[in-house]
Design a protein that fits this description.
54% of the residues are buried. Strand 1, helix 2 and strand 2 form a beta-alpha-beta unit. The protein has a six-stranded parallel beta sheet, sandwiched between helices. It is 38% helix and 16% strand. The chain starts with a helix and ends in a 15-residue tail after the last strand. The chain is α/β, with parallel strands linked by helices and 358 residues long. The protein has ten helices and 14 strands. The protein binds alpha-L-rhamnopyranose (RAM). Alpha-L-rhamnopyranose binds next to loops.
C-alpha cells in the first residue's frame, strides 16, 4: 500500500472510529489568473541547481528528521541536492530567525520552515521573499504574507475534531480536562486546539470543562513536569488533550508515576515508532498522526514547482507531487498532504513505513 493510500485508508479509519541562483521570480512572470498550470510560464530554472534550507522546530525531534527524510527522497526523485537541514536541538526562536537570515545571505533557492512563532519570524521571512527566495511554510504556518504557500500536513478541522471526539469518548463526555500543548505560539497546535474546542461546544459535550492549557514546548521532560503539575492541581482531572507526542508521552508516564486515576483519558498525537509500545501495553487506546515522510516529500515537490514556475502559489493551481499524485493549492495558499490517521495496536505496525528517519 502506498503512503497516499495509507492516508486514504487512514481517513476511512478515522471517520469510522470517529531563489538567488534559481529565484522563482527570476524568469517570465507567471500568470496569476485562472491558476491553471498551462497558463503559467516556466522560469527556465531547474530544481537540480537549487540549494534548499529546511528549518525544523527543533532537530532533536524525530518527527522533523522524518520530514527531512521525505524531502530528500523527493530530491533524489527529481535529481536535486539533499536539503540543508538546519536548526537548534530544542525550540529556539532567535535561532530560527538567524537561520532564515543566513539562508538569505547565501542566496538559496528556497527556505522551508516550521515556524515556532509566526510574528517573530515574519520580518526575516519577508526579507527572504524580497530577495527572490521561495519561502514555504510547512507543519506550523507562519504569517500568510511572509510565505508563498503552506504545506499543511493534515486537514486542520478534521484533526481538531477527531482529537476532541476521541477525548470525549474516553471521558464518557463528562468531567474536567486540560490541554498540554507544544509551544504557545505554534500555529499548528493552536489551530487544532481551536477546532477541537469548537467541536466541544456542542450540547453533547456540555458536561466537559476545560480547566487549564499548559505548554511543554515539544520537550519530554517539560511536558512530563507540566502533566505532574496538572494532576497535582486538579485531583479530579478526567482528561488531558495532548496535540503533540511529547505531551502524550509525558502525561501517560506522569499518570503512572503518580498512581493517578488510571481512567484518566489521554488523547491527541503520538509518535508511532516509539509510542506503539503504549498501544500494545494498553496505556493508550489510540492516537493520531500522519506520515512525516509524506510531509517532507510534498514540501520538496511544492518547492520544485515554485522554483521552476509551474505554480505561483495561487488557489486552484495544481502540480505533480510524484508518488503523492497531483497536488492542489487551496484557499489561503495551503497545500494539504492528507487526512489524520488513527493509530491503534492493530494497525500501528503496518503503518510504520511512513516514519523513516534514516
Ligand atoms: C511535534 C511538533 C510538530 C507537530 C508534531 C505532531 O513534533 O510540535 O509541529 O506537527 O508534534
Amino acid at each position: 500500500m502506498t503512503n497516499r493510500m495509507t492516508f486514504r485508508a487512514g481517513l476511512l479509519m478515522a471517520v469510522a472510529v470517529v531563489a538567488g541562483a534559481c529565484s522563482p521570480g527570476g524568469g517570465t512572470t507567471p500568470s496569476t489568473a485562472g491558476a491553471s498550470a498551462a497558463s503559467i510560464a516556466p522560469t527556465g530554472k531547474s530544481i537540480k541547481d537549487c540549494a534548499i534550507t529546511l528549518i525544523p522546530k527543533s532537530t532533536d525531534n524525530p518527527y522533523f528528521t522524518g520530514v527531512q527524510f521525505g524531502a530528500n527522497e523527493a530530491a533524489k526523485a527529481l535529481g536535486g541536492k539533499p536539503v540543508d537541514f538546519v536548526g537548534s536541538p530544542q525550540s529556539d526562536v532567535p535561532g530560527q530567525i538567524q537561520r532564515v537570515q543566513a539562508a538569505t545571505v547565501s542566496k538559496v533557492c528556497a527556505v522551508a520552515i516550521a515556524s515556532l512563532d509566526p510574528a517573530a519570524l515574519a520580518p526575516a521571512l519577508k526579507a527572504a521573499k524580497d530577495a527572490g527566495i521561495a519561502v514555504v511554510g510547512y507543519d506550523a504556518d507562519t504569517q500568510a504574507d511572509a510565505r508563498t504557500v503552506f504545506i499543511n500536513q493534515v486537514d486542520t478541522t478534521a484533526l481538531g475534531v477527531a482529537m476532541a471526539q476521541d477525548l470525549a469518548k474516553q471521558m464518557n463526555n463528562t468531567g474536567n480536562f486540560a490541554i498540554l500543548s507544544a509551544q504557545s505560539t505554534a500555529a499548528n497546535q493552536n489551530a487544532w486546539i481551536a477546532a477541537g474546542l469548537e467541536e466541544l461546544k456542542k450540547p453533547e459535550y456540555a458536561k466537559m470543562t476545560l480547566v487549564k492549557t499548559v505548554y511543554g514546548d515539544d520537550d519530554y521532560k517539560k511536558s512530563y513536569d507540566q502533566a505532574v503539575s496538572l494532576m497535582q492541581a486538579y485531583p479530579d482531572l478526567a482528561g488531558i488533550l495532548a496535540p503533540e507526542p511529547a505531551g502524550l508521552e509525558g502525561a501517560t508516564k506522569a499518570r503512572d508515576d503518580l498512581s493517578f486515576n488510571p481512567e484518566l483519558a489521554i488523547a491527541g498525537l503520538g509518535w508511532p515508532p516509539a509510542d506503539k509500545e503504549l498501544l500494545k501495553n494498553g496505556k493508550s487506546t489510540g492516537f493520531y498522526l500522519w506520515s512525516p515522510n509524506d510531509l517532507g516529500y510534498m514540501t520538496y515537490y511544492a518547492i520544485a514547482a515554485l522554483v521552476e514556475g509551474k505554480i505561483t502559489g495561487k488557489e486552484g493551481e495544481t502540480f505533480d507531487a510524484g508518488r503523492l499524485g497531483t497536488a492542489t493549492v487551496e484557499a489561503n495558499n495551503f497545500i494539504t498532504v492528507g487526512p489524520p490517521v488513527f493509530y491503534t495496536k492493530d494497525n500501528v505496525d503496518e503503518l510504520l513505513g511512513g516514519f523513516k528517519t534514516e
